[in-house]
Amino acid sequence: MIALGNDHTGLEMKRWVIEVLDELGLAYEDLGTNEAASCDYPVAGERVARAVAQGRCELGIAICGTGIGIGLAANKVQGIRCAMVSEPYSAMMARRHNDANMISIGARVLGEETAKMIVRTFLTGSFEGGRHQRRVDQIGDIERREHGQ
Ligand code: RB5
């Protein structure tokens, strides 16, 4: 299950993302707005992040105008590694090296084909482990220290 979320800027891009999910045969949970009315990106960012952090969804995709605000919000949820990406190479490496469990993308930044390529790359990639595991663990250590754990 893939968690999807967006603010008002991301309605069209969410449709493109859903086309890729359908093409890959992946089920999704839509946690974003479906209204054109202006809304606040942290709300959707937190919803997607919690669905992933709680294990209800394996991966998350979040959309706002730039992909930045919603990604910043998502990364405040413990256990989330959300990569803010605007090209496929970073989307691929976010999985391979950073074990990213979310990406955020910008509806005002990307066109349809680049967005779809990013989403496809992210969803079909996998973590390489090895030395990258140690570094991802170190990110988790920072997070636990930050939470006094
Ligand atoms: C909304 O205008 C815009 O600020 C939001 O979608 C996002 O780009 C924030 O980072």
Topology:
Blueprint: E1 2-6, H1 11-24, E2 28-30, H2 41-53, E3 59-64, H3 68-74, E4 82-84, H4 88-96, E5 102-106, H5 112-124, H6 131-146
Parallel strand pairs: 1-2, 1-3, 3-5, 4-5
Helix pairs in contact: 1-5, 2-3, 4-5
Residues 7, 9, 41, 64-66, 68-69 line the site of D-ribose (RB5).
Describe this structure in words.
The mean pLDDT is 98. The protein has a single domain, classed as 3-Layer(aba) Sandwich (Ribose 5-phosphate Isomerase B, Chain: A), CATH 3.40.1400. With 149 residues, the chain is α/β, with parallel strands linked by helices. It contains six helices and five strands. It binds D-ribose (RB5).
Strand order of the largest sheet: 2-1-3-5-4
CATH architecture: 3-Layer(aba) Sandwich
| CATH top level class name | Alpha Beta
- List unreliable stretches of 5+ residues: none
User: What is the overall number of helices?
Assistant: 6
Terminal residue distance: 29 Å
Q: Helices and strands, in N-to-C order?
A: EHEHEHEHEHH
Strand content: 5-15%
The biggest sheet amounts to: 5 strands, parallel
What are the bound molecules? D-ribose
Number of domains: 1
- Assign the CATH superfamily: Sugar-phosphate isomerase, RpiB/LacA/LacB
Whole-angstrom Rg: 14 Å
